[in-house]
Amino acid sequence: MGWNLGTKGSKMAPMSTDQIVNFLRILAWPLVVLYVLNRFHIEISNLINRVKSITGPGGIGVETAEEQRKVEETEKVEKLSKELEDVRNINTRLQELADVTKKSAQDYQLLYHFEKTYRLIFGSQLQILKDLEQSSEGQELAFPLLRYRASGWYEKGYALSDYMNFLINSGLVEFTSGPRSTIIYKITTMGRLFLLYLVANSMFLEKPN
User: Fold this and answer.
1) Would you tell me how many other CB atoms lie within 10 Å of the CB of residue 68?
2) Which CATH number fits domain 122-200: 1.10.150, 1.10.357, 1.10.10, 1.10.30?
3) Distance of CA 181 to the CA centre of its chain
4) Cross-strand partners of 185
5) CA 133 to CA 136: how far, in whole Å?
6) Cα separation of 53 and 73, whole Å?
7) For the chain, which residues make up each domain, given as ranges?
8) In the list 87, 95, 158, 174, which could disulfide-bond 153, CB 3.0-4.6 Å?
9) Would you say the pTM of this structure is higher than 0.90?
């Protein structure tokens, strides 16, 4: 049986068992909290130092600074990876553009060469080029010589070597050594492209000799 504290000068009334139990219940939770704080104060302190945010009722949860740091690092890595991928894509596109530009420049130079060659080439030289296109084995000098003499340049003093060298120096014709020390003339890949260019652009293959 306990005692109930009264006012000054009054006698203490005894406390019932229920009152004592209720009193102990009131003291229980504070005592438990004090014990936990005292027993685990280091761990609680570390946790509090790491806490970044706390979600309230309805979505109870605790997000620590360490977890947030990991999330931020992951986001940074993903962002950096995307930026690197973008850079690689840009470099690839620039390389493709450079290749196209280079090819366009080469095509332009080739077209310019064809136009210039067409302005300077004689009709008889064009005929020699067409003859060589039809001959897979090439031709000996005797065949171009007939075209040369029929053109009239022999009488005008234009040397055969200069006449044939124009085709060779323009990259349209090449020559190799044949049997019995003969010279074999063959059309080159550029020579074939030149003829195709003339046909594709409806340019006359019949020109003055």
Assistant:
1) 14
2) 1.10.10
3) 55
4) 139, 175
5) 7
6) 18
7) 65-120, 122-200
8) 158
9) no
If DSSP codes are grouped into helix, strand and coil, which group holds residue 155? coil
- 89-123: pLDDT as tens digits: 777 877 776 777 777 788 889 999 999 999 999 99
8 Å CB contact between 175 and 156:
no
Dist CA 113 CA 162 (whole Å): 19
Residue 77, both tokens: 């890595």
Give the tens place of pLDDT for each residue, 150-206. Answer: 999 989 999 999 999 999 999 999 999 878 778 899 999 999 999 999 999 999 888
Torsion 64-66-70-72 (CA) sign = positive
The span from the CA of 163 to the CA of 124, in Å, is: 10
